[in-house]
Amino acid sequence: MKAACFAVFLTTCLWGVSAGETHREEEDIIRLGLYVVYDDKFAKQAIFEENGTFNAYFTALTGAAEAYFKNHNHLTISLTLVNSSKLEDQSKLKYVTEGQETYLNASPTLWELEGIFTWNENLSRDVDVVFLVTGNKLKTRVSDMTGEWYGLAAPGSICYGNASVGIIYDDGITFNGAHLMAVQVALLLGAKKDNGRWGECDLSEEYLMSSINGGPHPIMSECSESSMWTFHGRVQRNKDLCWKDTPHGALEKKDSPVNFYGERKCDMCELRDGPKSKDFKCTGRKPKNLHGSCKAFCCSSGATRYRRRTCEDANPVNLPDGTPCGGGKKCVHGECF
């Protein structure tokens, strides 16, 4: 889905769809094709390589990120994994060590990735965004003076060149990168941060855009949602917009973490405890006590006539994203929407 470079400060267009309408006109649907490149650290710790690729895992990861936008009042955001591969030149990845922990230094790495992909003519026309998925935690930065974020996808840069670029950390097991992927998709599409400055919503509400790591509530604030709508209104009349065609997925259908785990008989209570060996196999559902609609306390494997089952009473796990939670709603990041 390559598109000609365009500036985000295009002349404001007249707007023909009221904010209150629930029906989505075709022009209010944003379809983005995502290509994932991953590093050696991710490949080493991820346990769901199948048929020589991680496409099944990344398809479910992309579906999890898409779910963050399902209740957007104005736009429909559709994310499709086009393909994935290991990053060829990993000398472009920059690191910083703090204590015993090595982090991927996000800002200089992002700059290197932009040099590789932004004007890369070899990318499929289906690709709009390239995400690096790393197995190292990220080192990002927030400006003390302005509150600006450094190390994430450039705000409003969707459809610039041949592909926009972002970075996420994911453990290759629990889809924990979906949260930050959603943050960066929102940034690319013009979402403002919630930092209480320059008329933005207060960060204390803890919506998705309230933190560089993603706020705890997996929904957009009114300010962030409105700024995406405004950005869309400025650019959507451009006939070469990269999101106006439909990308072809790496797999035949989209997926979600709950379906992915279900098909492989995996359970969050056995996956949560850190790295697994490459030959790890899921062993089926584990006993748990529900804690609200989308969280649960893990329990010991089973009870006997001599011993009762014991369950934790702190640090509940999130049920897999996409788990039905009543009234047609589904779990996203531990909350029911």
Say what the CATH topology of the largest domain is.
Collagenase (Catalytic Domain)
Average pLDDT, rounded to a whole number, is: 90
Span from first to last CA? 31 Å
Tell me the radius of gyration. Answer: 20 Å
Relevant CATH superfamily of the largest domain: Collagenase (Catalytic Domain)
Structural class: alpha/beta
Class of the largest domain, according to the CATH hierarchy?
Alpha Beta
Supply the number of structural domains: 2
Sum up the overall morphology in one term. globular
Enumerate the spans where pLDDT stays under 50 for 5 or more consecutive residues.
2-22
The largest pleated sheet is described as:
4 strands, parallel
Helix/strand order, N-terminal first: EHHEEEHEEEEEHHHHEEEEEE
* Share in helix: 10-25%
Description:
- This protein has 337 residues and is an alpha/beta fold.
- The protein has two domains: 230 residues, Collagenase (Catalytic Domain), CATH 3.40.390; 80 residues, no CATH class.
- The chain has seven helices and 15 strands.
- The strands form five sheets. A four-stranded parallel sheet has the order 2-1-5-9, sandwiched between helices. A three-stranded mixed sheet has the order 3-4-6.
- It is globular, with a radius of gyration of 20 Å.
- The two termini are 31 Å apart.
- The N terminus is likely disordered.
- GO terms for molecular function: metalloendopeptidase activity.
- Keywords: Hydrolase, Metalloprotease, Protease, Signal.
